[in-house]
Amino acid sequence: MQTGQPSLTALGAARLRAAHQVLDNASILVDPLALRILGDDIEISLDHARAHASGSRLRWFIAARSRIAEDALNTAVEAGATQLVVLGAGLDTLAYRTPLAHRLRIFEVDHPATQASKRKMLATAAIMVPESLAYVAVDFERERLPEKLEAAGFDADKRSLFSWLGVVPYLTEPAIFSTLGYLAQLQGGAEVVFDYVNPAASIAPAGRAAHQALAERVAAIGERIQSYFDTAPLCERMRATGFRQIRDIGPAELADRFFPDAEQSAPRGGHIMHASTL
């Protein structure tokens, strides 16, 4: 990420979410704000999606991870969660469209430059900010999340859901497990949904080329992928960190659930993790 500049990968993900509403008829994720937040950018978004090296796969994956996080939030609130924390929020719109906002204290955590850019875009699009939402500016590699979050009013004694999408691959392992360690010790209990990628060498050749192209593209804009995880060791490490329930949703399950008519995905690649300390 360029110093002082908003995240370009966050913008790219937002364009693919918006394109999903049009090109896929919102078949995985219904997000009425995905187009609005981008304003006049929609034609760029569609061109970006049509020309993407990964074809429709990355667009579907991005829609699926948002859908899983949204479903997890709905279930968590019914089970007693009262706080939503969106880590590395980018241009995610969940906080602005969830009908549960009045039952939640919401915290959006992001790099200061990306957060400032988003707030301008929300204002331009006339998207209402829930009264229950607080913005928390944090650089995950240089600042400690607990102090920043709790200073904004986060209550460690209340049950919370953390949505952490499109962020983990761009962080170092120490930064990732520092955050997971914090979540695991929260007295009120925590759930987290995040995505990660298997090492490129373990992916089948057909998928490896697309993966390498994506890695090179994000590195060229200053947002290099820094962390890859094999699934079994990651699950073991999360259990050791303090997560009791761990559900890993891999490429094959994602394909079966969200795009069954497409050519079957390889068993390795992008995963979505949903873990809980409860």
Write a concise synopsis of the structure shown:
It is an enzyme of class 2 (transferase). About 45% of the residues lie in helices and about 15% in strands. With about 280 residues, it is α/β, with parallel strands linked by helices.
In DSSP terms (H or I, runs of 4 or more residues), the helix count works out at 11
CATH class: Alpha Beta
Q: Which stretches are low in confidence, meaning pLDDT under 50 for 5 or more residues running?
A: none
Mean pLDDT: 89
And the CATH topology?
A: Rossmann fold
Tally of DSSP β-strands: 7
Helix content: 40-55%
Protein name: S-adenosyl-L-methionine-dependent methyltransferase
GO molecular function: methyltransferase activity
Family: Belongs to the UPF0677 family.
EC number: 2.1.1.-
How is the secondary structure organized here?
Layout: H1 8-23, H2 33-36, H3 42-50, H4 57-78, E1 83-87, H5 94-97, E2 105-110, H6 112-124, E3 133-137, H7 145-151, E4 160-164, H8 173-184, E5 190-197, H9 205-220, H10 231-241, E6 245-249, H11 251-258, E7 270-276
Parallel strand pairs: 1-2, 1-4, 2-3, 4-5
Antiparallel strand pairs: 5-7, 6-7
Describe the structure.
- The protein is of the alpha/beta class and 278 residues long.
- It has eleven helices and seven strands.
- The chain has helices at 8-23, 33-36, 42-50, 57-78, 94-97, 112-124, 145-151, 173-184, 205-220, 231-241, 251-258; strands at 83-87, 105-110, 133-137, 160-164, 190-197, 245-249, 270-276.
- Strands 3-2-1-4-5-7-6 form a seven-stranded mixed sheet, sandwiched between helices.
- The two termini are 35 Å apart.
- Keywords: Methyltransferase, S-adenosyl-L-methionine, Transferase.
- Its EC number is 2.1.1.-.
